[in-house]
Amino acid sequence: MAETARHLLFHYNTLRYRITKLERMIGPFTTDAHLRLNIAVALQALSLRSVSEVLPQRVPVARSAQRGSADAGKDR
User: Fold this and answer.
1) Is residue 70 scored above 70 in pLDDT?
2) What are the C-alpha distances in Å from 60 to residues 7, 57, 64, 66?
3) Are 10 and 17 contacting, i.e. CB atoms less than 8 angstroms apart?
4) Using an 8 Å Cβ cutoff, are 31 and 20 in contact?
5) What's this model's pTM, rounded to 2 decimal places?
6) pLDDT tens digits for range 59-69
7) Separation CA 62–CA 76 (nearest Å)
8) pLDDT (tens digit, 9 = 90+) per residue, 27-69?
9) Do residues 19 and 30 touch, judged by C-beta distance below 8 A?
10) Which residues contact residue 29 at a Cβ distance below 8 angstroms, ignoring those fewer than 6 apart?
């Protein structure tokens, strides 16, 4: 934990405090592998969601319009 605190530029006690506070809110993620996985997946989904909000939205095209343009050459 000391190495992690140094890497994050936190004081050792600050990191311990924050981890303890998180464990009180969401459970013992430092010892429960399933909980760590759930948290990682949730954070990844949140990250993807925020990325999709930044990307321009595509305008949906009706299926009949898509088929109509593809089928137009077949009728002739």
Assistant:
1) no
2) 46, 9, 12, 11
3) no
4) no
5) 0.53
6) 666 666 555 55
7) 23
8) 998 899 999 999 999 999 988 877 666 666 666 666 665 555 5
9) yes
10) 22, 23, 35, 36, 39
> Is the CB of residue 33 less than 8 Å from the CB of residue 40?
no
The Cα 53–Cα 46 span in angstroms is 11
pLDDT at 47: 86
In whole angstroms, what is the distance from residue 57 CA to residue 55 CA?
A: 6
Amino acid at 30: T
Please tell me the distance from the alpha carbon of residue 56 to that of residue 71, in angstroms, as a whole number: 29
Residue whose entry in the numeric block shows the structure tokens 């095209």: 61
* Single-letter residue type at 61: V
